[in-house]
Amino acid sequence: MFLIVGFYLFETFLSVAGRLFCTVGVHPTRCKEFEESGDPEKHFQALLSLAKEGIEKGKVVAIGECGLDYDRLHFCPSEIQRKYFEKQFELAYATKLPMFLHMREAAADFCAIVERNKDRFTGGVTHSFTGSAEDRDKLLTFNMYIGINGCSLKTAENLDVVRGIPIERMMIETDSPYCEIKNAHAGISFVKSTWPSKKKEKYDQDSLVKGRNEPCLVRQVLEVVDGCKGINDIDQLSRTLYHNTCRVFFPQDLDSAADALLAGRRNTP
Ligand SMILES: [Zn+2]
Predict the structure, then answer these.
(1) What is the pLDDT of residue 1?
(2) In a domain, 181, yes or no
(3) Can you tell me the distance from the alpha carbon of 119 to that of 123, in angstroms, rounded to the nearest whole number?
(4) Residue 57: which domain range?
(5) From ligand 1's centre to the CA of 102, what distance in Å?
(6) Within a domain: 137
(7) In total, how many domains does the chain have?
(8) Which of 14, 150, 125 is nearest to 64 (CA)?
(9) Per residue in 234-264, pLDDT tens?
(10) What is the pLDDT of residue 20?
(11) Separation of 100 CA from ligand 1 center, angstroms?
């Protein structure tokens, strides 16, 4: 299952096929688009209409990604990020959709805004988590999951933080095409599955493109979580994490339906 996240209002994927779904929202680094549109309220209403259209088509499953990114203020100043992060809770409230959230070097402001709006959204995930143990514990006080990818597994400290996330409150993702697990990262020692890769100039559909994180590599994230937490039951772990994802974004997929899908995939050569 693939969840494609929106960055801009007009970057949407309502026509995506099969088990591909998308979010509607504005990324923190792109929040200037509200003001540059000349009419932020009209821009907001356009997002809301788009989300409603996507819900009708069964393709939009979350509001996002939105949040705060103080690592990349050169794209958008913090006050504008805060203003439109808060504004996008209205989208979640109006649509009853969960939120797909982004938090980078901004835990205090992020948590303060979530706290003020915690009754306006039904749940969600803070993805690509790279925060401290304190940030993790604060996020876990909300009705929220923590999303792990290669960026969450770079250092020994990152792995310690991940060890403290209960698997019942965790999701995994790739954040493809970014955030791959590299050889210099602390998590690499737990990676078991690898695939051949070739430079993009020598593209071959049986190989990964070198330097590009691809969806199949979510298996590596799973292996690092399994290894660093000492779980040693990768099938059970994958089932729990998949159920977490379905509960938030695909509540129509009961656990049994999710299991059937997983089993079907396993039986397919
Ligand atoms: Zn993000």
Answers:
(1) 57
(2) no
(3) 10
(4) 1-122
(5) 5
(6) no
(7) 1
(8) 125
(9) 999 999 999 999 999 988 765 566 667 667 6
(10) 84
(11) 9
